[in-house]
Amino acid sequence: MKTQWQEMLLMQAQKVLKYAYAKYSGIHVAAALLCEDGTVFTGVNVENASYGLTVCAERNAIFSAVGQGHQHFIGMAIVSDSVHINSPCGACRQVMMEFSSDMIVVLDSPAGFYTSTVADLLPNAFTMQNRKGE
Questions:
Q1: Is the N or the C terminus of the chain less surrounded, counting Cβ atoms within 10 Å?
Q2: Does domain 4-130 have CATH number 3.30.70.1290?
Q3: Is 76 helix (H, G, I), strand (E, B) or coil?
Q4: Per-residue pLDDT, 4
């Protein structure tokens, strides 16, 4: 069952899905991020012929939020037009972990709906405590 804020984030992500630049994979992805103060930031995947330069929707949303002074996140909705439920990539999981291990992540696509926490998506994550001397 989806909560009210999850429904709202899913709608926000769905609104920007059309802006995804998915020329290479053909999979359009959008994310909506809910900050602690109620502000919502969205992002879409932006692919590049040099695949390593591609940026995922999740990181685009987080980086936009951080760039405007937000660092405390409650939840993120991720939508795609894929026939699969696409979970965030490892890089996105690590960036999410940097800010909130207990953030709720909601995935929605034509294939179905899935909810998790960042900690469950990235068990045994590399965190600040892993640094030398910590």
A1: N
A2: no
A3: strand
A4: 95
